[in-house]
Amino acid sequence: MSGVEEYNAAQTDESMRLSMLAVDTHGYTFVAMTMSKFLGFDLCPQMRDLSERRLYLPRSVKLPENLERIALTNVSERAIHKGWDELLRLIASIRSGRLTPKEALEKMGSSAQGDPMHKAADQMGRLLRTLFLCDYFSNPEFRREMHTLLNRGESVHQLQRAIYFGRLAAERGRRRDEIRAVSGSHALLTNLVIAWNTMKMQHVVDRWRKEKHPIEDAWLRRMGPVHFGHINFRGLMAFGVERYADALLAQPPQKRRVSGAA
After folding, report:
1. Same domain, 121 and 155
2. Which residues, at least 6 apart from 228, have a Cβ–Cβ distance to it below 8 Å?
3. Looking at the domain assignment, is residue 178 inside a domain?
């Protein structure tokens, strides 16, 4: 969620902002769905269990007979109204940069249960998930788009496993700086592969368009630059470190000892 908010905040063109974030079942909460909606995008979870596909409706709604087995009328509109102002202040703090979405979610964790703001976000999140499920089951195009996003996310994980498939040595990754170095290096190599694939794919698209070869935008929307079958991860890598050998091997200057007069 933090990454989407940072990306959208940096975009001056609204058409370039992300409107959806697809996650697995364990990647969402009712509170998270509310916060993402307030921040301008939809959190779209993949519902694995049937128990997660239950509909939640306000208590004032009369439940139709054909929905009795899959719906509950236990959403409190009063709770949403009571915590609404505090919820808006929380979102304003995120937008102003005083609070990150991660910090806000931590603030709204299990320890905040019973707080009016937490209850409002929880109750509203139930309504948002109900609307999401209605779109998911009734709109095939929306369902296909969400599955495409999930598949691309999993493809990135497969690429990361292909780049490094082993395990860290016992003496590595224990300090915070080592964890940052390992994680940052892994992310850098992953982004290099994606960037290289994107460049090559764009070259093909530009050449085909120049040659008047028919290309439909729908094809490009379904393509992702995460393939790695054509890349040899076990080859030899050469780095021109000889240019920096003097700086790398230079001995630090030693301090001179000044002897006092007898």
Report:
1. no
2. 158, 159, 162, 193
3. yes
Question: If we measure between CA atoms, which residue out of 78, 90, 85, 83 comes closest to residue 113?
Answer: 83
DSSP, collapsed to helix, strand or coil, labels residue 200 as helix
Residue 68 within a domain:
yes
Q: What is the pLDDT along the chain (262 residues), one digit of tens a residue?
A: 888 888 888 888 888 888 988 888 777 889 999 999 999 999 988 877 766 788 999 988 888 888 888 888 889 999 999 999 999 999 999 999 898 888 988 888 877 788 999 999 999 999 999 999 999 989 999 988 888 888 888 888 899 888 887 776 666 667 778 778 888 888 888 999 999 999 999 999 999 989 988 888 877 877 888 988 888 887 777 777 788 888 777 766 665 555 544 4
Whether 156 and 223 share a structural domain: yes
Residue 37 lies in a domain: yes
Residues 6 and 132 in one domain: yes
What DSSP string describes 155-171? HHHHHHHHH--S---TT
Q: How far apart are CA 154 and CA 152, in angstroms?
A: 5
Same domain for 110 and 192, yes or no, is no
* Domain coverage including residue 8: 2-138
User: Which residues are bridge partners to 229 per DSSP?
Assistant: none
Within a domain: residue 248?
Answer: no
How many separate domains does the chain show? 2
CA atoms within 13 A on the CB side of 133: 19
- DSSP string across 234-251: TS-----GGGGHHHHHPP
Backbone dihedral angles phi then psi of residue 215, each to the nearest 5 degrees: -135, 125
